[in-house]
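W.,

You were right to be curious about this one. When I first looked at the sequence I had no strong expectations either way, so I just let the prediction run and decided to look at it fresh. Below is the sequence, 121 residues in total, followed by the output.
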Amino acid sequence: MVSVGILLVSASLQAHHSFSATYDGNKPITLHGKIVKLGWQNPHAHLYVDVTNADGKVVTWEVESAGPTTLMKQGLRKEDFVGQEVIIKGFLAKDGTPTVNPSSFTLVDAKKEFVNDEKTP
């Protein structure tokens, strides 16, 4: 598996919100699903991932990632995401919505792992 470090939340962008204000470091989660949409805008790109839960219902999760500039510096394009199977490890949003801040995510078919360099729990 090819590993590429990605700064998913740039330190320079933390002024607009901090991890602890939005996400709960005591609530880790692992999701496995398919990327169905990508919001490709600053300050963060947003991956929308369809995940089938235990009762068979499909829930679309929002994954807040790095901004497009950071992702492009790592050799990624917006075309690289939609349709990909992904495994996400991260932390749940405090507001109870299906939103996650990833500590890492793996594009299964591409065999690439992206790791958040940010110091989160």
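Here's what jumped out at me. The first strand starts at residue 2 and ends at 6. And, maybe more interesting for your project: Residues 1-15 have pLDDT under 50 and may be disordered.

Coffee later to discuss?

I.
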